[in-house]
Specification:
The chain has one domain. It has three helices and no strands. Helix 1 packs across helix 2 and helix 1 packs parallel to helix 3. The chain is elongated, with a radius of gyration of 14 Å. The termini are far apart.
Length: about 90
């Protein structure tokens, strides 16, 4: 049960990180909206990052609420939403 609670925390944390990145990074040429997409992208990235963090940092005692899981979730959610919000237009 503890792991499911941790994954739920990753999803909420990733969505909040995505919404924070939307408010921090303003693009004048960007179309309005995309709030749901950015929140979903942040949640998905947080789950993947959390799984990677648990796998790398706490391999022998895998728990979703570990430090590695939380750091991995926050890092990948921040990276993916930053790339989507700022870098997609610059990469094309």
């Amino acid at each position: 049960m503890e792991n499911w609670i941790g994954i739920g925390i990753w999803i909420i944390m990733g969505s909040l990180i995505g919404l924070i990145m939307k408010t921090l990074i303003k693009r004048p040429e960007a179309a309005p909206g995309h709030t749901g997409l950015i929140a979903t992208l942040g949640a998905l990235a947080a789950v993947v990052g959390g799984l990677l963090g648990v796998g790398i940092f706490s391999f022998y005692d895998p728990r979703a609420l570990s430090l590695g899981g939380m750091l991995g979730a926050a890092t990948l959610a921040t990276l993916f939403t930053f790339i989507y919000r700022w870098g997609v237009r610059g990469l094309i």
